[in-house]
Amino acid sequence: MSSEYATFGLAPAMRAGGVLTDGDCQVHRDFVDFVVDGRPLLFRLSDLDAVSPLASDVPPAIFTAQVRGLLLEADAPLAGGRHVIYGCPECESIECGAVTALIERDGDDYVWRDFAWQTGERPDLELNGYHGMGPFRFRGPEYRGALSSLLDADAGARRRVLLIGARGSSLAKPAAALRAIGIGADIARDAAGVPPDELRSYGAVLFGRAVPEAARAAVRASFRGAGVEVAQVEGLAPIVPLLVAQIEHALDRSPVELRRLTRLVAADDEAGVEVTSTCRVRLTAYRRDRLARTHAHDVFDGVLPTGHHRIPLQAGAVRGTSFVVARTSGGVLVEPVTHGGRRDRR
User: Quick one: fold of 160-250?
Assistant: First the structure.
């Protein structure tokens, strides 16, 4: 077994939810990811839509049990001493498939090895093993310190959003869509009189386009008075999937340097995308026509390697006032499409 050490850490992450062009909803999940040698371990799995067992929406007792298991203070949940490292974001069934590994002690060290894709009681390491992944040897104090800190911290994320609009009815559909993917949403004309404790439960506030600047300033002042910094979203257009994507981006608590999808620009007939590791990327274009009807076009869906990429945009998908949403399993970016001028599309 390798005697070289890997560093171990933790970082907030999310599985991005959203309303897809086929009408399906993708559930939002906040979780804590494992950071090995300075990079999220999930990045080594290029096309996997999954979350760690350290999810913020599980009951506290289950969250604690997961931490204790990773510390080897409780029995492994799977046969052969195996632990779930990443599982299905929609359910907890092993039948959906999960990345599992053997975790064991070697003196004061912790070792993760024999990573595999598992769908039953025991994995087939020859057929479904991740042969280029691990083993990872972690120093005991660093490993225990990172995981034990979760037991003393509030692992829950602020997943409520306050929608501010001059007409509450115009925000009913975005609010319903957010609730459908697991994000709480409240609608109000302002934040006057809202108790500070309630304001602190919001992770983002979205302003409708018709909200005047004076009203926006008053809402910001209310949050400052409650001693909370909240992400502020300026609604780009009354397109429900677009607004949901903007909010998903605003709720992303992961460190910028640990994100997979880091840049999006869109101009005329081309989009520029930057990813920091190989992953699946989906690009969707949205526009409103003269009759205020929404049109959505899936313009790209594929696995991109690390680096900058230029992706053609169909002229019919982005004519007039239009927007592009870039999505990976762990992040979302939104950009309006500019016309008639060249932008830096690296």
Answer: Rossmann fold (3.40.50)
